[in-house]
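Page 47, continued from p. 46.
Same chain as before, 108 aa.
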Amino acid sequence: MILTSAYLVLLLGTDAVELQDPTRPPTTQKVDEASSGANAASLRVSAIFIAEERRYAIVNQRIMYVGDKLGDLVVAAIHADAVHFSEHGQTRVVVLNDTKVKDNTDEF
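Result:
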């Protein structure tokens, strides 16, 4: 009984450590567009989604549509294999990471 009470005091007296669910995706921090300091060298396109009426890409863990801004960069176009950005009148192309892009001509 004394041992159990001592164990409870020790257990409750320490700082609790929050357990994380190992199946939960990592949280992302909200990026302030003005202070993001984004440039073409720091951009990473991890996915591109193209539907009949909508195109969007995952850039630096953010969903981006044509016209969206990331710092001084503006998404000018989204293609199946790359995202085109405009910055001060110049166009920069960021290619989708080394992954296979499936299209309607691919065979199963």
